[in-house]
Design goal:
Layout (H helix, E strand, L loop, with lengths): L1 H5 L1 E3 L10 H10 L23 H5 L3 H16 L2 E13 L1 E8 L13 H15 L4 E7 L3 E8 L2 H10 L11 H12 L6 E8 L10 H10 L2 E8 L4 E8 L5 E7 L4 H10 L4 E4 L2 H14 L3 E12 L2 H19 L8
Parallel strand pairs: 3-4, 3-6, 6-7, 7-10
Antiparallel strand pairs: 1-2, 2-11, 4-5, 8-9
Helix pairs in contact: 2-4, 4-11, 5-6, 5-10, 7-8, 8-9
């Protein structure tokens, strides 16, 4: 409602000066003391019915219809308009591929409720801030695939993130495969800046492409790789086996993350390495990346106007017609 009123204005506001006659009309009709009808004085009203008819009750309000009609017609003459903004955005866009680990260790409980759910939640918050960027999603564990190609439809990307779960791929940690898949999606991009956000909590132990090889390819295509190691220091409640029903069995296990590898990947591609030990630190990391990789936006604002006078003109004429008809039919008076 507030936004609507802020965009509401009058094209010919000087007509509103005529509204000054409305208080005069109210005073003249109801407070001036001028008799509006001829009256018959009777010494005894006992012979007349005491119940007032609907005509008698409604009659004093007929002049109010004229007053309301006059008010509406004056507002209509002032041409009320609603300004509609159109924005033409010219963005020097950034193409971003998010690479997320789906290995079983992402179910570790050192994050609440686990590493994967927190990583998904924080990634969604990051995406919501990057309105004009194309963003895609690659997932990996023992293998890798593109969950969502580069897109500006961030709603569908958020849906893909929501649906991520451990077990979608063969278990393992193929960091090189995940990184190479993301680079393949960015290599033909014409974007001013191309970045990858690689999030993992383990040590590369699967896949046929080495992480450093994938990093070299990224460097060749001017792709910066921000690496994030997720997991507390020391030990965490982690999946250590699976039961006969397929459910994971948890126990305390040492947190093993190849931080040196992740640091090397970031350095090779002129980016940065981060370590997230809880939700707050992960949020801070994404905030830092958001600050480092800003999109330059040129916005041209155009305005067009939509007349709203009909919403006042039509009711004004309707009230005027009603008052005229009532005064000349139901409430017609005889002049002496």
């Amino acid at each position: 409602m507030i936004d609507y009123l802020s965009n509401f204005h009058f094209a010919s506001p000087w007509w509103l000066l005529l509204l000054a006659i409305v208080p005069w009309m109210i005073w003249y009709r109801y407070f001036s003391g001028r008799p509006t009808l001829s009256v018959i004085t009777m010494s005894d009203l006992s012979g007349l019915p005491s119940k007032r008819s609907w005509k008698e009750s409604l009659f004093p309000y007929v002049p109010s219809l004229y007053i309301a009609a006059t008010t509406l017609l004056i507002i209509a003459m002032a041409r009320p308009q609603l300004s509609l903004k159109e924005e033409k955005v010219k963005a020097e866009g950034i193409d971003i591929m998010m690479v997320m680990d789906l290995s079983s260790s992402m179910l570790s409980k050192d994050f609440d409720p686990d590493r994967l759910e927190v990583s998904k939640s924080v990634a969604k918050e990051f995406i919501s801030k990057r309105i004009h960027d194309r963003i895609g999603l690659v997932v990996f564990s023992g293998e890798a695939f593109t969950q969502c190609p580069l897109t500006t439809d961030h709603n569908i990307l958020q849906d893909f993130l929501t649906g991520l779960q451990v077990g979608m791929l063969t278990d393992g940690t193929a960091i090189g495969m995940g990184l190479a898949t993301a680079v393949n999606r960015l290599k033909d991009s014409d974007a001013k800046s191309k970045i990858i956000i690689l999030l993992t909590d383990g040590v590369n132990n699967a896949g046929y492409i080495q992480p450093t090889t994938a990093a070299e390819i990224a460097r060749e295509y001017d792709v910066k790789v921000y690496t994030i190691a997720v997991g507390t220091m020391g030990h965490a409640m982690s999946p250590i086996n699976r039961g006969f029903n397929g459910e994971y069995l948890f126990g305390m296990a040492k947190v093993e993350i190849d931080t040196e590898l992740l640091q090397n990947i970031a350095e090779m591609t002129s980016a940065k390495y981060f370590r997230a030990i809880d939700r707050q630190s992960l949020e801070n990391i994404y905030t830092e990346i958001d600050r480092l990789e800003k999109t330059e936006i040129e916005v041209n604002v155009f305005k067009r106007y939509k007349d709203q006078f009909r919403f006042f003109l039509i009711p004004g004429f309707v009230l005027l017609l009603m008052a005229f008809l009532l005064q000349n039919t139901v409430f017609r008076t005889l002049n002496s």
